Every structure is written in C-alpha cells, then in structure tokens.
Amino acid sequence: MYIVQIASECAPVIKAGGLGDVVYGLSNELSSQGHCVELILPKYDCMRYDHVWGMHDAYKDLWVPWNGGSIHCSVYCGWVHGQLCFFIEPHSSHRYFDRGCYYGEFDDAMRFAFFSKAALEFLLQSNKRPDILHCHDWQTGLIPVMLYEMYKYYGLDHQRVCYTIHNFKHQGLAQLDVLQATGLNRPEYYYQFERLRDNSGSSINLMKGGIVYANHVNTVSPHHAWEARFSEIGCGLQGALEYHQAKFGGILNGLSYKFWDPEKDELIPHHYSKSDIAGKEENKKVLRERLMLRQVDKPLVCFIGRLDQQKGVHLVHHALYYALNQRAQFVMLGSATEQSINDQFWREKLHLNDNPDAHLEIGYNEELAHLIYAAADMIVVPSNYEPCGLTQVISMKYGTVPIVRGVGGLLNTVFDWDYEETKPKEERNGFVFYQQDFTALESAMSRAIGLWYGDNEKFQQIQEQGMESDYSWTKPAEQYVGVYEHIRAK
Description:
37% of the residues lie in helices and 21% in strands. The chain is of the alpha/beta class. α2 (108-125) packs across α3 and α9 packs across α12.
C-alpha cells in the first residue's frame, strides 16, 4: 500500500512533543511491514538538519494557488533515519516557516492552512497518487476538506484520508479569511455547524473540518476515544464525534524501541535486561553522582515531562515532598509551559538546593532523560488528561515502575499491582490512582514505596513484568493498516 503521512512534526528532525515521535514511529513500522511510506513536512528554518541525510531538490517550481494569486515553493527530499521525507519551503514575504519556532505564532492557522494546500498541490503536480493520506492534528485538518471539495475534481479522486487527533485541546480556530486564502470560497457553505463552524459560533474549527470530511478519524488510545466523546476532554467536539461515531475510534500509540531499549541505548552507561537487571543499579550510581545525590539504600522516584496543567503539575509538586517524607529520593526533569509554573519550580529548586535526596532539573535534556529512566525505581505520571502517553511506556521498558492516574492511554497501558481485577498478577505492571487529589496520589505512592522497602522481590517482579510488556509499533501499525484497507475499499 502507498501511504503518505502529512504532519507538522516528525522526530527527531522536527519535534515539539509526542506527535513527532508517533509520526516517525508509525511510518518506520509501516515501512518495515512492506508498505511504501513517504512523509510531507514543512521545511522549518529551525528544524534539526543534522538528522536529514541526502537533502536535495525534489520539485523546484511548485506554484501553490493562494489568496487569489500563487506562492512559489521549493520541495526538498531527504532521508530521516530511513524514512523518505519531502520538505516544503515557500518563497514568500510571509516567511511562514522561517520564524525560529514551530508553533505559537499569531498566524498559525494561516501558516498550516498554506502547508496543507501546498502538500495537496505537490501530490497533484508531481503525479503522486497514494492510496492513503494520513493526516495529524489540527494543522492538517483542512486536507480532507480541500481533497473532497476541490482536489478530487483535479485528479486526486481515489485517495482516502485517515485523520488522527493527538490532542483535542488545540483545535485550530480561525476566521473565514483562512478558507478564502485556500480557495474554499463559499463561506455560507462551510460556516455551518455540520461542517467547519466551531461550537462557539464565531470561528471556523480546522480540527472539526478533519472530523467531518475524513474517511476515518481516530485518537491515540481507546480510553481517550471514549473520554473525547463522553466528557469535557472532547473540548466542545463531543457533538461532532457523536454524529460521526461510525468512523471514530482509538488506536494506542506505540513506542520506537529503536531509540528506547536499555539493552542497546547509546545514551546510558550501563546496559541491562529483564533477565539481568543489575545494570540499573549501576546507572543509579552514575545518576546520583551526576546530580550530587547521596549514595544510599533508598528508592529513587522521578518525574519526566512538561510542567503544565495537563500533566497535573500540582500533583508533581506534592509527589516531590511526599517522596522525601517517605524515605525516598526524587529527581525531576521538566520544562514549564507557563512563567508562573516555571517560577514556582525555580523557587523549589533553590529551596532544595542542599538537599542530598532531591534534584530538580528545569528544562529538557535528552541524554539526562534516558539516564533517569535507566536509573529510577519509580516514575509518577499524575496527568489531568493523557491522550496516550509515552512516558509510562518508556519507563516500563527500562524497569521503572509507573505510578499513574487512571486516564486516557495510561489506563490502557498500566495495570495496578493490587487492584486490577481484569489482569492476572503476572500481567500487572504498576500502580494506579483515579482522583485528582493528594490523598489518591499518596495512596498509590505509599503502596509502591512500601513494596520496595517491604518486599523487594515482588517489586522486582513488577519491574520485570513491565519490561516484558510489548508496546512496540507492531500491533498499532497492523491496526492502522486495517483502517487503511477498510476505507480504501469504500
């Protein structure tokens, strides 16, 4: 099958979050299963060019109809860790992707509407005719709209669209001028609630366009799909998902063990496996020395991730002090998305500067992240919502026991050691709590820390069972292929 992924990110060349990991990991697995996979991406000025091999001109003179005129683009081609990628560079005074950042600009809706238009124009003009267009998040929500309202009449008439939503919080709200720039010139037609009009009534919603027009829509875990339809997690799109429920579902994200595997991870000093976990203790010694923590017989609890409301930042703060009070050490690696949160954790960092059992690293460091996963005994993931989550899956691969809140993909991957009745004891791999309060978090943390002190043999059993869990891309890719075959047959 010929599949083209169209997205605003692809790790490691373009990565702002989990979207990039998913786009690369899924593409790589689909390729390994024998499918022809290509990616279309924006050519940002700030992307990691050192991860692109053999960059060269692929299509020099792509003229993209835009806002009553046209914009000249160059399309470059290169290999990103084995995946063939096309990068679109517009030559325009708007400098859409020459901003020194991926997101956060005042005209993001216009920038990615142009990218979507350019991607379709590139397929049309280069005579590429994939079976499947797989689009991701609001940035590409207009692709199925333009495909079925415009481009199917120009020659892209057999393509089918799978549309994956990674985060319902960001939906791409815009004004009608964005549609008019693309050539979708019937505002009275598109500005209807059954098409692109947002529930607020004052904007168009690019994600809603993707939901309405795509042949299949999914989010990144089965439980999050349920949450999106039946709770506030849908962020106003519950009605659209309900109306289109026949084509909506959830497919759990996978993890690329090519980059995350303690047996061959190049970023950790000591390799280990579930049959010989001794190297984990050696990594703990290295981490403690690096972060100036004392070498003592205590469990090491960690947090790795963004410091924001989605990740349950108030519970992260509480977990830090609760761990210290329970005779554990705590290491945090996180970057804040708001200045107030950043300031709060800098104050905590200064307050704990001389504490030999705590270290707060504010920011993100890939090498340090790998070392923490390889060294820690437990990780807290207290998210308010979590579409899928990779942190808990990575931690299990490294024998770091997850303590998670039972939401989204966390509930599909972590099964409580004490209370999960749907799984036999030999398949349980962590600790789960459900409420958003301190008491619930403390209950789960006390059970985990208590087991480490009280029965280390059973704690190691949980570690090993987590390491045995298979959350690779193999099964999710097979599920996506099933979706592709289903919509292609229509």
